[in-house]
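Need tokens for this chain, all 117 residues.
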Amino acid sequence: MKNKNSRLKRALKLRCRIKKQGVNRLSVHKTSQHIYAQILSKDGSTTLVSASTTQVDIKSTLKGTGNVIAAVEVGKIIAQKAVAVGVTEVAFDRSGFKYHGRVKALADAAREAGLKF
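Here are the structure tokens for all 117 residues:
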């Protein structure tokens, strides 16, 4: 439980900084089997777009859902949906997770697909 509490504390500090910036937020959450991404409005009350490996259209194209390849696919799709809605600039909220592995792969794929952060 100590590790989870530490991660949540890091996430809270990061979200406070993002809230002061006043921009839309790309929030990422990961489990051992899936990765989730959503873009939230400036005040954090509305989800503008979302993508995850639990969605049927994404899951059917992947061999596994808990790996870097799946994270890259989710990053591309979330960026495409965001650009279609008109969101091009976001702040990256990694939810207290370290910036490596699947989180980094998702962020890099979203940048390549057109998001700026």
